[in-house]
Amino acid sequence: MLIKRKRSWELPESAATPESAYLNRRQLMKGAAGGTILAASSLAASSLIANPLLAQEADPSAKLYPLKRNDAYKLDRPVTQERLATTYNNFYEYGTDKSIVSDARKLQIRPWMVKIDGMVEKEMEIGIDDLLVRMPLEERLYRHRCVETWSMAVPWSGFALKSLVEMAKPQSGAKYLQMQTFKDARMAPGQRDFLYPWPYTEGLTMAEANHDLAFIATGIYGKPMPKQNGAPLRLAVPWKYGFKSVKSIVRFTFTDKRPKSFWEGLQASEYGFWANVNPQVAHPRWSQATEKPLGSDERVPTLLYNGYAEQVADLYKDLKGERLFM
């Protein structure tokens, strides 16, 4: 008997920006009928073997926060309330609705090993706390724009991705940086869904990875990263749609092959590799011209490259025939 199962990305247009979704997630779950898409979900190539007791303890990196703010990264809008930014989350490893805070508690963040491999001078594996000691940590204020047309503005803590690239010493032939989340269905029940191409995979060109704005976030609101937001480290590339911001990263691979991202593998016609924000390029099922900030009842205009065009547009000026904006 053939059973047709509706995939979670096949949502009606009306579900893309549901009314009151930000404060009433129960209503969202009904309206979205099984699933709004993406954003910052993530998984990866190696399985975590962790002591469950450690997951209940305080994050050992808490003593590092809050970090000194880098005032070069400013906002043109109010910072989103912490309560909203940490309770309205996409993390498909723990479910397809936004209320995954309690389910994400299963995420075990110690021990947490990060592998750096591929086209590098020397492959390595490093524990998260050792990595934090080696990186120049700071706080930055960034806008975040989800492809679902909600947005937020938050203070991320972490380090410039280019600092990790420098530590890795990639070979000259490396053209892309592939990033993956953990893969452990015991810890993340959502990974038991065979329709998804686990582990969550994302990628950037080396030019993007070395850009000043590309950031590895390890905390938010002056505290270690909450599990539902992608602890212990996630990508933040504010000029791209949120689904590029892979969560809970365990592997960085330098390669000369363009990575096939998680959402490309599911629906390449709707979610491409580049995923740069452009209000003039609609999603196939809804407009991207406006967005709804978390906690607001008003829609506001979306900006080209999410307001970072001056900084990043030159990355793409010589690319021809590429679908840069979705």
What characteristics describe this protein?
Sulfite Oxidase, Chain A, domain 2, 326 residues, seven-stranded mixed beta sheet, globular, alpha+beta, disordered N terminus, 7 helices, five-stranded mixed beta sheet
Looking at the structure, the CATH topology is Sulfite Oxidase, Chain A, domain 2
Number of helices: 7
So what's the overall shape? globular
Helix-strand topology string: HHEEHEEHEEHEEEEHEEH
Notes on the structure:
It contains seven helices and twelve strands. By secondary structure, the protein is an alpha+beta fold. It has a single domain (13-312), classed as Alpha-Beta Complex (Sulfite Oxidase, Chain A, domain 2), CATH 3.90.420.10. 47% of the residues are buried. Mean pLDDT is 86; it is low at 1-56.
In short:
With 326 residues, this protein is an alpha+beta fold. Helix content is 13%, strand content 20%. It has seven helices and twelve strands.
Can you lay out the helices and strands and say which pair or pack?
Elements: H1 25-32, H2 82-85, E1 113-118, E2 124-127, H3 128-134, E3 138-145, E4 150-160, H4 161-168, E5 176-181, E6 201-205, H5 206-209, E7 215-220, E8 223-224, E9 234-236, E10 249-255, H6 262-267, E11 290-293, E12 300-301, H7 309-312
Parallel strand pairs: 1-10, 4-11
Antiparallel strand pairs: 1-2, 3-4, 4-7, 5-6, 5-10, 7-8, 7-9, 11-12
